[in-house]
């Protein structure tokens, strides 16, 4: 079986495993207070071109989202998200489990606009009964979105400007941030992301690490006592250095960016394979997720040797599917796919 | 100012105040274990034609909804509701504050259908990633709905049948249940309601009581330890008898139904007043809430002497407004309104 | 049966019922925004000698405690309380249900000292692992305590001083505050209470009202958006004026203080009755709760005609019991008790 | 610096790193549904001599405890624990953050007895006001305890018998379970543990793994929908196989037991080193944590080269300290310690 279901099919970049072996018998104190975490935080701050932020390492994305959002909101506040946002649909109610509503805004492409945020905010405060309604307290976006689309630098800055005017915090889910930044149509750098939000995370799990996410907090109020929250929500890894070491490897020589670029190159070839076959695409994704629309019988055929995700039904005969590339996608797998699609 | 904003503008039916005075110096034990609560529960069971249900008295609607829903659901489950449902939009996130998502189904008329429930249920279980998605555990409807519309007996039974097949609990918010049952187009009795759900409440606050809701629980699992939950959620009134006494008065001689009928009669006159003026209506409400569409300048004029709620903008020049009648609506107020509308 | 179990055995002071009748057909807007609530708040501010506080009316004590505490704390913080504190033992886990630990300090007399608060605070911050431990964020005391004991003015001020130094909020549960202030050994006024805390509530339920508590908030951060929280926690009464009217009656001519004094006078007679019988007392209560220690066979005998609470076993043969007086205690009941105790 | 602070100072057993490398480019589906997790579960069931249990893999201990406890309890229930229990003192309020009180029982040695559980249960139900009190729903113990002490097989069975009689679930925190089972005074096997509880976890983090805990659930009700809860609480690792692979290595040839025995042997040498120096011990620990009592100036001296935890002050001049051994403790470090203690 050749797998294209997702971007967490393999282990980690070999350099990470190598470093874990090299450091294995070092003795370090726990819970992220070790020299590796310290150094990784330094490297990330440098890559973000920011000195005054806090950097924390957590194990996974749902955990990171939940911890940040529940740390930021008072009990009567909710978090604005695209209706397709990961926190709204694929975290088993993690946000609600901490007491907060996800205020879902309709979105076709997975993005929300500065205007939509502003309208949501104003609709709340203009409603005479607003004290009976969940108060927007934060905005959650992801870069890239669940649908592989991207915010431009201008769009992001506009959202952040609106947020600041409205007293809303802006938080960016960067589970696949590397793949966004490596995309040809992306006009922003990591430093641009870091400059335009209250907090965001750089995803490791889907971009070369075994697991782990690096959370960057700019907002002073949110920084306060944050490690208590990580501990409470189960994200304070005893051997915190495992996270530090991985992000050291990813950021000390630009490996994070290099392997992200590899995935984007593979995604382009993925796209080409389906274009050559005459496929339309569900969304115009420029990142590592591609959404070709295929005939149902073609899908059945292809599924015998290839795994990929059925995304949504388009009509009676056609379904949009998702093929992911990643840091680990091999030419061998792409060659096999190319051949198979040609021969359908 | 003549007020038509809502159905909780006045105190209580005079018989209730009289009974509170008569019983004032009785000494009773607290927390709803007194003879008045016992008797009121008996009267309600009789009116529901049900022996095997539990009856509890709580202070208000949001509290009742929250207590029932959080008692029923496990942490990963959510409650299905129309998007306009009170729990989804007007309870300041009370349901989410207990950890549960409101799974909002789109609805134009405030109702949800048995099919919509079934589809929602099946969509969940057919999704390969369902363990990452909030699991539907309960269905919340209100009779009448927020928009004044009504479920027919057949519709309610169909929903309950689907719920039982799917293992979902059905809970009915009856904040204005009296006004539903008194409506000319309603084809069900209180016993029919009681027979077709796992739990429901009979609203007192909006139908003649000072405050208070009578919760009826049919489902055995939900019955267990329910008083702990009432206490925890702040609904176990120290002088519980105040609730018992009020529901005794409302149910010992059919007062609840009688005063509900009064409100419906007043609502018809409300409707007539606006029909005579040539108004269209936002919804075809047969209960105590009427939603005429008026010109904005007419609304401004009328607002000088009358209070009512601006419901939603219909177009640039017109707005739908809400006028409520209740057990307490007087001819005097209706006469004044009739005259004013004529003279706009 | 003559009842002395608690201080919420009867309805309300007759003047309250009378006022509810007089105002019954006034039409007012809901949720505590009516003129009666406004006026009651004014009267309470005056009685507290404070202009810059917010006054809210809630239905019950558990609800008030829960709403204040969850509004004040961040998710990793807990509230310090005496181990016998109402929030720690008699609210069915209401505080924990909003996510917060009650940090219970051992206490024999129901009080906690400024030193104990300071030690608890310092123990937390001196612990190297404090990020793994619930952080103290607030102090909860009640005046009088669950055991009928009282804080002196100096003790209260000392606690508040420590709290301010430590950045802890101080909240006072005043369910029986009237009975504390009316006690002969109490050296503080309502204004003194109001001056020495971040928030407190004046209990109505146990002091003459049908139900209802008046919450006073001094702390600016806690004031913000507080009505959202009241709504979310089920405490925003639709007919909020019912609370306003009751507190108007209680505070417009000093009725609250007058009926509290009545209860203290009755409590003294209660005490005398048991002293004359040669009883020891569990605690030296100067408020409306008295805790005589009686032989078990005497208790059995007395229980035939009198109801009271078994508080705790003292030894094999003796049990401490609780007799409460209240604003409603009659000479008739006290006479009967006196006679019965004499004749045991 | 020679470190003895805790048992998570190093990475993982080299065989684990080796296997991670060997399997690194396998493509597997995510979230613990891969063949490695399946095989690891099979190996663990065999080691537990149990077929009818569910096995899940989670990332850390606090996360595992929180997920199990919140899955098991209804909202009004709490979990019984020794006052020194990890959930009560060192998880930043994680249990309370899911809405549940930790019902702390006093304990000198970190253990709770079957009698203490029974008394707690009966005290609840015999209290007339029990509906106002958090209901015990579950018992949490750890084997070994926080103080290094052990339950005997008979004690454990007795607790489980009481739990079953009382309708309480029994859950065992096995963060250091390997070290308990390897102890010379331990009279139970892994199968004995598995036979005497509703759920328990086998700790990997402290016993040879990089991270990860294997949760075993026997109770049918608790099994239901458990993966939703793991996801919601942030414990469903995307690359779940990382956990499966580690537990495969630990359980396929008894490595888990072998390296646990190594730690116990090292602990004995630790103990001997301090006994030879004439030290008393705080607790009579037969597991991998040793608690010698040392003079404060000795501690200061020793701290220059060795790290260990100050556990608690014993008197003005002496402090109990904690030295941990683990699967990774080397003779080199023990030799250095022996020499240093001799020369103090």
Task: Describe the protein.
4 copies of one chain form a homotetramer. With 344 residues, chain A is α/β, with parallel strands linked by helices. The longest helix of chain A has 22 residues, at 255-276. The first copy, chain A, folds into 2 domains: 2-7 and 256-342, Aspartate Aminotransferase, domain 1 (Alpha-Beta Complex), CATH 3.90.1150; 14-253, Type I PLP-dependent aspartate aminotransferase-like (Major domain) (Aspartate Aminotransferase, domain 2). Chain A has 15 helices and 13 strands. Chain A has helices spanning 14-22, 35-48, 61-72, 86-89, 94-97, 114-126, 153-166, 177-182, 190-195, 220-223, 226-232, 241-252, 255-276, 296-302, 331-342, and strands spanning 2-3, 54-58, 77-82, 102-105, 135-142, 169-173, 199-203, 213-217, 289-290, 293-295, 306-307, 309-313, 318-324. Chains A and D meet through strand 1, helix 1, helix 3 and helix 11 of A and strand 1, helix 1, helix 3 and helix 11 of D.
Keywords:
alpha/beta, 2 domains, four-stranded antiparallel beta sheet, Aspartate Aminotransferase, domain 2, 344 residues, homotetramer, Aspartate Aminotransferase, domain 1, 15 helices, seven-stranded mixed beta sheet
């Amino acid at each position: 079986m050749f797998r294209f279901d997702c971007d967490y099919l393999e282990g980690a970049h070999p350099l990470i495993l190598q470093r874990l072996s090299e450091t294995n018998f070092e003795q370090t104190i726990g819970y992220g207070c070790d020299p590796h975490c310290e150094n990784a935080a330094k490297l990330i701050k440098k890559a973000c071109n920011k000195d005054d932020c806090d950097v924390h390492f957590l194990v996974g994305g749902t955990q990171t989202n939940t911890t940040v959002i529940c740390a930021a909101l008072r009990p009567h506040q909710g978090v604005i998200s695209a209706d397709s946002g990961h926190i709204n649909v694929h975290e088993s109610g993690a946000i609600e489990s901490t007491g907060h509503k996800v205020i879902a805004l309709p979105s076709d492409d997975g993005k929300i606009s500065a205007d939509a945020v502003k309208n949501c905010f104003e609709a709340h405060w203009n409603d005479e009964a607003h004290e009976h309604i969940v108060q927007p307290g934060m905005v959650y976006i992801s870069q890239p979105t669940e649908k592989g689309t991207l915010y431009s630098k201008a769009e992001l800055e506009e959202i952040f400007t609106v947020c600041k005017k409205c007293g809303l915090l802006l938080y960016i889910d960067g589970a696949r941030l590397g793949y966004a930044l490596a995309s040809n149509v992306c006009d922003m750098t990591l430093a641009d992301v870091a400059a335009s939000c209250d907090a965001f995370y750089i995803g490791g799990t889907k971009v070369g690490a075994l697991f782990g996410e690096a959370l960057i907090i700019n907002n002073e109020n949110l920084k306060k006592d944050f490690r208590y929250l990580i501990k409470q929500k189960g994200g304070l890894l005893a051997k915190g250095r495992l996270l530090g070491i991985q992000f050291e490897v990813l950021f000390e020589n630009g490996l994070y960016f290099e392997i992200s670029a590899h995935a984007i190159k593979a995604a382009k070839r993925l796209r080409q394979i389906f274009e050559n076959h005459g496929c339309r695409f569900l969304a115009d994704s420029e990142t590592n997720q591609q959404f070709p629309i295929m005939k149902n019988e073609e899908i059945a055929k292809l599924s015998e040797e290839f795994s990929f995700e059925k995304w949504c039904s388009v009509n009676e005969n056609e379904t949009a599917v998702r093929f992911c590339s990643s840091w680990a996608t091999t030419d061998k797998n792409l060659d096999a796919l190319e051949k198979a699609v040609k021969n359908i």
